[in-house]
Amino acid sequence: MLDVIEKLLILQERDRKILRLRAELTRIPIEQANASGRSAKAIAAHDAAKLVVKQIETAKKNLELEADALKQKIDKYATQQLQTKKNDEYKLYGDEIEKAKKLINGLEDQQLDLMEKIEAAQKDAAAANKIAAAAKAEVDAELAQLASRDNGFKKELSDLETTRAALTEGVDETTMSKYTRLLKTKGESIVVGVEHHTCGGCHMKLPPQLVHSVKAAKEVVACINCSRILYYTRDMDLVSSD
User: CATH topology for 14-167?
Assistant: First the structure.
């Protein structure tokens, strides 16, 4: 195997680690957003449950105010009833008083119904609060773990990128340029083996003369189909599987 191929294989392994670390670092913000979203959803559910309680309490308060207004009317009618000397007016005030009392009874029944709803809504809000608190604790722990992973990956990536330049020493400029172009388009598999007369990258069949050149290891040989850099070792089977 050519010395330059050995260097490129080592460089390729380094670049694979770098690419995988970059991919991991790309995924972390997504995981963080998903985790934060779960917590936000639970908090929103708790807020919605509290709002229901507040709305029912407001409705009950409005009924109480309406009932108080009717009671004031009753007091007013009662006073007017005592002051009048006319039978028809006396009866009219009495009818208004009875009508107001019936309305008050209806309002009080509604208030009792709303009190039961408030109690149920408060229980729902309390349950939602527990869920939100548990979700926040879980998400906080997950975010802390993700932050730790992020810092660890960044440090490892920095170390790998810092020492990567040393691995390119001894690789001629033409070959290095070709490798760099392939790194951008082919990803992790740039320098690939030849087995059964096929390229280890694109898995296309190679001409016998090209395979012979790879085995001879006198020059850098590229796949005619995908342009990947080819190499051969003794443990590879060059016999065609056809």
Answer: Helix Hairpins (1.10.287)
Q: Is the CB of residue 170 less than 8 Å from the CB of residue 213?
A: no
Q: What mean pLDDT is reported for the chain?
A: 94
Where do runs of H (alpha helix) occur along 84-236?
Answer: 87-167, 173-186, 208-216
Alpha-carbon separation of residue 222 from 193, 211, 227, 230 (angstroms): 11, 10, 5, 6
Pairwise CA distance, residues 31 & 28, whole Å: 5
Q: Which residue has the tokens 């443990």?
A: 235
Fill in the DSSP letter of residue 192: E
Our CA angle for 121, 123, 129, nearest 5°, is 105
The torsion region of residue 216 among left (phi > 0), alpha (psi -120 to 50) and beta comes to alpha
Alpha helices in 168-190 (DSSP H): 173-186
Do 8 and 177 contact (CB within 8 A), yes or no? no
Domain range annotation of the chain: 14-167, 173-231
Q: Distance between CA atoms of 207 and 232, rounded to whole angstroms?
A: 15
Which residues are CB-contacts of 35 (< 8 A; sequence separation ≥ 6)?
139, 142, 143, 146
- Please say whether the beta carbons of 238 and 194 come within 8 A: yes
Strand order in the sheet with 191-195: 198-199, 191-195, 229-231, 221-222
pLDDT in tens, 108-167: 999 999 999 999 999 999 999 999 999 999 999 999 999 999 999 999 999 999 999 999
